[in-house]
Here is the input.
Amino acid sequence: MDLGELRLSRAHLNALPDAVLRPGFDPACLRPGILHLGCGSFHRAHQALLTQQAIEAAPGDDAMRWGIVSVSLVTPGIVNALAAQDGLYSVLERGPSATQVRVTGTLCRLIYAPQEARVLMQALADPAISLITLTITTAGYLTDPVSGRLDVNHPDVRLDLRRQHPHTAIAWLVLGLGSRYQAGHPPPVVLSCDNLPSNGKILRQMCIDFAALKDDRLAAWIESQVQFPSTMVDRIVPVTMAQDRDDAFHALGLHDAAPVPAEPFSQWVIEHFDGPRPRWDAAGAQYVQDVSPWEASKLRLLNGGHLAVASLGLLAGCETVAETMALPGMSAYALRFMVDEQKPTLPPSDHDISAYARQLVARWRNPGIAHQLERVARDGSQKLPTRLLASLRDNREAGRPSPCTTLAIAAWMRCAAGLNDAGQPIDLQDPLRQELFRLADSARGNPFRLVDLLLEQTDIFGVDLASDSGFRQQLQHAMRLLHEQGARAAVVACVSAWSENDHGTGAVTRCQQAAMSRTP
Ligand code: CS2
Here is the structure.
């Protein structure tokens, strides 16, 4: 048989080349202890791999109880691909100059919920499953943005109340918790692994609200008995491309239909909870009393910085974060954005935020990671309020200037109009896409008119920013710079103005100089 037709599977594990890291245990001997909803790339490159490392760090029979039942709620593709290779797949950890391939073997069962509802129900009810984890994206929480409660008018919520086998993760979870309640079994601990602040608190509220629509006693039991620790998850995981499949094939000598590329960095901060769990701490996870300082710095520096870099990079005609970070002045801009404009808005903590910012610049510059800008900028209208506008408000209240944040907001506005600096289309994926294009059309190429029309979108900017004339002026200034000179020159102008005025702290100036000297 042609080598190209051989598929990664348990039978081949021992014959893998030495350079490939493989599970330090026999995956066939794992027993299910975790059920995960949302079998996407992030889960496979983060929690599933960390669980493998936890089992390896503290091996033994007890560790083998932490196999993962991984559930796809929406599409069968990934589950079928994984099932055909005994749940095994490779994580391609791409550093700046080398890639480490790690075959991961913790997915001990795969379920495609729409076709295997009974199997999923049994797994949810199984008392051996003591942890349920989720990566279902922000939209999967079905939260009403105004009340912060379950959106009871959401069509999926209404349908799931009537269906025997639901479609949404929240409804599945409540059904599973209900079966433990009915059977008198202890509940599992439920851990959200989505990139959303207070993810545990939000998930808890959504489950209580959904349960209350069916059975008040179940809602009360969930409220008093189920633990929903919040977690902060971090790892940059770009979309899998043909190159990743090719690289996996070359490394393994076998075909892997489900490889995941990821940066070497990985972080998981988990709120303390009671009950058994894998030795995630031995594999690098941290247990803390309060995750909110980690959440805040991640949201404002990493995710806010990502949105800023992606908006400017899209205008400049770049495709990836690393390509954008290599533009002149961009690293200095990113550092200034993070250290001068985001750091002062964070809650007090003993974290070294300047070191975190420098580490982020290095992570974003990693040329091994092809992190597509269009993906980072996707749903920008929904990301803008928490990632850029919240810190802008804090800075305005404190009287601190925030020219980098303002430039990023102006860049997002220009992207929303759908054309880059060379007049080529930007494929903006956003729930407000049609509305944004309509507004851009009525601005008829007038950048100040675009600012005025977009600022009127109070769902995004609130009434306060729409009526803040100082902010409007600064935004117009940034928009003029982008309109007349383009994003590349605007970034350089932004950091040069800063150096001349010496607004930055000494520490940042050194960072900036270091970053600028690395810039080609
Ligand atoms: C990114 C995140 O697409 C985005 O919004 O900022 O997905 C980011 O890559 C992750 O949060 C990193 O942990």
Observations:
- Residues 181 and 466 are 49 Å apart (CA to CA).
- The chain has two domains: 3-288, 292-515.
- The first strand starts at residue 32 and ends at 37.
